[in-house]
Amino acid sequence: MNKLIKLFMAIFRIDSNKYEGKVVNISGDGEIYIDGEQVHVGDSKRVVNITVEGDVELVQGAFGNLNVTGNSGRITSASGDIEVGGDIRGDVQSASGDIEVGGNIEGSVKTASGDVDVKGDIAGLVSTKSGDIDAKTISGGISM
After folding, report:
1. Residue 20 above 80 pLDDT?
2. Domain boundaries, position 124
3. pLDDT at 127 over 70
4. Burial bucket for residue 42 (CB in 10 Å: 0-12, 13-18, 19+)
5. Total structural domains in the chain?
6. Which residues is 135 bridged to in the sheet?
7. Quick one: which of 57, 60, 61 has its CA closest to 84?
8. What is the pTM of this model?
């Protein structure tokens, strides 16, 4: 299964390496492609930490830790923590890992195993099967 990260005018970092591009594709065997060009980051079987400096619209099938400094659209993660510095405007799902949001949740956040910490308002829906939910205010819904 390929993993896809769709970026808009963002700089992103994979571990200590800095790249520019619009589309990142992480293949099922851990190979990373940026705008169609393969990027070599060492051992493809290890956990990859990705930082997006800016907004991101789509991240699918991510593994490792993901940090988005801006706002996010849709994120689907198999494992690893997700940190969004701005608002979550789409849907974020994680099978395993904590989710931290610096702004508001306008869409939905769902994690099977992990905590959800929101510095702003939960206007959408947040659910976790095994974890805690913490927010400044809740005008939407939560499910535990």
Report:
1. no
2. 49-143
3. yes
4. exposed
5. 1
6. 118
7. 57
8. 0.81
